[in-house]
Amino acid sequence: MTPIPPADRDSEPFRLPALEPPYRGVLTLRLRPRRGGPEALLRLRYSLQGDVTRPWRAVLGGISAGETPGGTDGWWRVQVGAGLAIDPADGAVLGLEYIGAPPAGWHGVDSADQADALAAALDALGADTVAAVIGASYGGCVALAFAARHPRRAARVLAISAADRPAPMSSALRALQRALLRDGLARGEGQAATALARALAITTYRSEREFAERFDGEPVWRDGRWRWPVEDYLDAQGQAFAARFDATRYLALSESLDLHRVDPAALDGARLHLLAVAEDRLVPAEDVRALAARCGADFSLIHSRYGHDAFLKEEAAIADWLRARLAAPERMRGRALPA
């Protein structure tokens, strides 16, 4: 990796070597966990894409998202890129890998720990503040935790499909997924357990309407039993996920979703923009609306057959919302990036 050159305060501002592909590196961060345990050193991957001399935006996704939001391999490449809603030419886009397993002595990984990791990453990269923290799904939970714990470090926070705490029904379903994962790990069948747990999760990511439209067919007799049309889809989704995501990481991040808690009183509603999806079965729209009412945040509601996955599938609606909330220019205080 080419090192970031030191900035000369008496010379013209420097730029990263190129906008594409994203610039990648590894940061060593020192963190103390929210839920108890010793301070630990963590090495987390990051990506930085775009003009570092203009206000930065941190972009965070769901539990399966990597540290690269934009570019050809980015998890949100439909929104992050040249000419898109989050354009790296308007200011650098920062992505950060999630803490995927609790260090020794930690009692789990909280969304607050991920927020503190983002703050530590900004310190390491020399950015005192960012123009925005933008998060969707689990990333929205982390964005809310960042807003509560580091209120002066983001000019605005945009959270999609995230509330101040998990819905009890969603926690119940994730508890069953974690039971599958623990059982699979105990039997040495972590990959199979990951596939099954993910298949169960998929039923909460999409809406009843979409499933009815796509899978309302007759069963077929195959391999000595009846199979319904939806089973092939669930199997494919689970196996694809298990091929790139291990059971231990899945277990930790699933638990982190249920550990998530943010005090609405700690949020500055004037800086907070929330988007909910009416058909979201995982994060009920009313929970997001209630959070907005308690802290005075901007609230928007869209409809989507894709339910919780609308942030990935409703490209136009999400892009319009992002552009509208990011339109006003903001200034970012910062130091020179380290060598």
Give the tags:
acyltransferase; alpha/beta; 2 domains; Rossmann fold; 10 helices; disordered C terminus; two-stranded antiparallel ribbon; Rna Polymerase Sigma Factor, Chain: A; 8-stranded mixed sheet; 339 residues; disordered N terminus; transferase
The beta-strand count equals: 10
| Radius of gyration computed on alpha carbons | 20 Å
* Count of separate DSSP helical elements: 10
How many domains make up the 3D coordinates? 2
- Look at the helices and sheets and give the structural class: alpha/beta
Strand content: 15-25%
Q: Within the CATH hierarchy, at the fold level, what is the topology of the largest domain?
A: Rossmann fold
CATH architecture of the largest domain: 3-Layer(aba) Sandwich
Strand order of the largest sheet: 1-2-4-3-5-6-9-10
Order of helices and strands: EEEEHEHEHHHEEHHEHEHH
State the fourth-level CATH superfamily of the largest domain.
Answer: Alpha/Beta hydrolase fold, catalytic domain
Largest sheet: 8 strands, mixed
Approximately how much helix is present in the residues?
Answer: 25-40%
State the name of the first-level CATH class of the largest domain.
Answer: Alpha Beta
Mean pLDDT: 90
Envelope shape: globular
Instruction: Point out poorly predicted stretches.
Output: 1-20, 335-339
Tell me the distance between the termini. 12 Å
